[in-house]
Design a protein that fits this description.
This protein is mostly helical. The chain is about 70% helix and about 0% strand.
Length: about 240
């Protein structure tokens, strides 16, 4: 069973987009510089690092890519399997993502991953605890991308804003590209997608710049994903899902 299209699903995906900004704030400002959701940037970081670019870790980028790939493959298998049995794969995906992010946050907390007030010194190699958190969070984001592809909410892929921003700008009058799709509904959704990513990044960086530990900032997206999954589960299949 797939999630029912409409305002509720769009809102859920926008909330997940906001959490991406928070997650990448931790990834880039504390664990890296590295990305765990935006793997395009990560591929470039790895390419730059392999040529000897300063302050970039090929290990961090490589672990993130591998974790993302594992999460994508496992997420695809699990969600497809649940779907074939007539189950609610969207609920399973949200709960699994929340669990992975929660474990990543727990590892960050228990191992004392550097807080922003005491960051890793420039040039100091990342430790195994950093790489473990990177792998877990990247796996969660790989799973998230499978979920977003299957949910297929236009202009809200949850881990990227480039396409939404391009469509938003290309559809502006007076020379709107009609092949992209225009109109208030499209523009509101695209603007909300870009705004959610930006807001999440601001919120994550603000929390890290204050007194919040990286583990706390990761716990918040974990709690949100688990909360959304639980809400869908409690609401019942007839209200949140359709067959197909």
């Amino acid at each position: 069973m797939k999630p029912r299209a409409g305002a509720v699903l769009t809102s859920v995906m926008l909330v997940l987009t906001l959490t991406t900004g928070m997650i990448e704030a931790v990834s880039f400002l504390v664990l890296g510089p590295v990305f765990t959701a935006v793997q395009t940037g990560n591929l470039l970081f790895l390419a730059f690092a392999l040529t000897g670019a300063a302050d970039l870790s090929p290990a961090a980028s490589g672990v993130s890519l591998v974790g993302f790939a594992v999460g994508t493959v496992l997420g695809s298998r699990v969600e497809s399997g649940v779907d074939r049995r007539g189950g609610r794969w969207f609920v399973v995906a949200l709960l699994a993502e929340g669990a992975l992010l929660g474990v990543g946050a727990l590892v960050a907390w228990r191992t004392g991953v550097h807080a922003p007030t005491a960051p890793t010194a420039p040039g100091e190699p990342l430790t195994g605890r950093h790489l473990a958190v990177i792998a877990l969070v990247a796996a969660a984001m790989g799973l998230r991308n499978v979920t977003a592809l299957r949910a297929s909410v236009p202009d809200v892929p949850t881990t990227l804003s480039t396409r939404a921003l391009t469509a938003l700008l290309s559809a502006l009058p007076p020379i709107a590209d009609t092949r992209i799709g225009s109109g208030p509904r499209h523009e509101r959704r695209r603007l909300a997608s870009v705004g959610a990513m930006f807001t999440g990044g601001v919120l994550g960086a603000w929390l890290l710049d204050g007194t919040a530990a990286p583990a706390v900032v990761l716990f918040l997206p974990a709690a949100i994903a688990l909360g959304l999954g639980t809400a869908h589960l409690v609401a019942g299949a007839e209200r949140t899902s359709v067959r197909g």
